[in-house]
Amino acid sequence: MFEQDVKEETLHIIREIEADPRATQRLISEKLGISLGKTNYLLNALIKKGLVKASNFSHHSAKLLKIQYLLTPKGFEAKLRLTYHFLKKKEAEYQRIKQEWEQLAAPAAVAEE
Predict the structure, then answer these.
(1) What is the model's pLDDT at position 66?
(2) What is the C-alpha to C-alpha distance for residues 108 and 113, in angstroms, rounded to an integer?
(3) Torsion sign, CA atoms 50, 27, 20, 65
(4) For residues 31 and 39, what is the distance between their CA atoms, to the nearest angstrom?
(5) At the top level of CATH, which class does the domain 2-112 belong to?
């Protein structure tokens, strides 16, 4: 289950980077509701895997460096793969819940007749 959660969080981070390459780690962590440390860990893992490229875009040496995160072609492929698995997981959850609902609703339908 933990690995599945990490994959889902990774997908959400990739989506956030795609939507706003200049988003800070703090902003991403707040939007996704995960800790800043975990966001840093996951972003660094994405960078090491070559899915995300980090580059500086601050031109003032006296200011803190600002980082821009860009998806690489490999990152786009990973996004597609993770999205596919995410949707398959959600479809399986839907089918399971639908089946449970039908089992719970069947006795009620018989009782109404």
Answers:
(1) 77
(2) 9
(3) negative
(4) 11
(5) mainly alpha
Nearest to 80 by CA among 5, 1, 15: 15
pTM: 0.72
Domain boundaries of the chain, sorted by first residue: 2-112
Q: Read off the pLDDT of each residue in 32-60 and give the average, rounded to a whole number.
A: 89
Residue 65: what pLDDT? 66
Q: Can you name the residues that pair with 53 across neighbouring β-strands?
A: 70
Pick the closest to residue 8 from 88, 108, 113 (CA basis): 88
Q: What is the pLDDT of residues 21-42, one digit of tens each?
A: 889 999 999 999 999 999 999 9
Residue whose pair of structure tokens reads 């039908």 in the numeric block: 102
Residue from 112, 7, 12, 27 nearest 68 by CA: 27
Tokens linked to 49: 């895997």
